[in-house]
Amino acid sequence: MTSLPVPLNFPERAKALGSSTLYEASHLPCAVDSSIRAVWDGAFIGAPAYPLQCSPGDNLALHLALERVPRGSVLVVGTGNFIAGYWGEVLTVAAEAAGVVGLVIDGGVRDIAALKKRRFPVFARGVSVRGTLKSSVPSVGQPFNFNGVDVAPGDWVVADDDGVIIIPLADAARTLAEGEARASKEAQMMQALTEGRSTMELMNLTEWRSRA
């Protein structure tokens, strides 16, 4: 089956829906490890992925990636879950100049006050002052498995206060459409709740009243 083209306004529509709604609408195992969180409240990413892998404690791949990454992308960085300060204010300035719109990394970052001040969206496993080496490049721009979720160039990353999901490019338009249908249904349910109906009734759970 041919996939639908991804709408140009995907980021705005994804932000309105949020990662949780899109995760449910996707019907895919696309949720990244929940310990990878925004380093400042309110951060949002809705952009195509540019994947790369760093050796533990080594950020050379990040520097190389910033010479190759397509503008408008989010870097999705595997580190083997090794916590160190792979990323800080200097790389943030370089990323902004390269047109990068965010970072998702399973390692650590630093210079949090600067990241927050610049409003650059970063989702990381931890924060660390520990520096990194620059001596190896496992992969740049190649697909890999990021904490249980496959990621390839162009897959859509949606990240907000609820968490991070990675939607395969072929499923992005479908997921967005199903997410908006789900949001519309939930809006109708919430209106019914304000009118006095119950979640038990609206979700067809009334048979449990006699069992509990």
UniProtKB/TrEMBL annotation:
GO MF term list: lyase activity; metal ion binding; methyltransferase activity
Domain of life: Bacteria
UniProt GO BP: methylation
Residues where Mg(2+) binds: D111
Protein residues bound to substrate: G88, E89, V90, L91, R110
Matching Pfam families: RraA-like
Cofactor(s) listed in the protein's UniProt record: Mg(2+)
Keywords: Lyase, Magnesium, Metal-binding, Methyltransferase, Transferase
Signal peptide: none
PANTHER family (alphabetical): 4-HYDROXY-4-METHYL-2-OXOGLUTARATE ALDOLASE 3-RELATED, BLR3842 PROTEIN
Protein name: Dimethylmenaquinone methyltransferase
Source organism of the structure: Pseudomonas prosekii
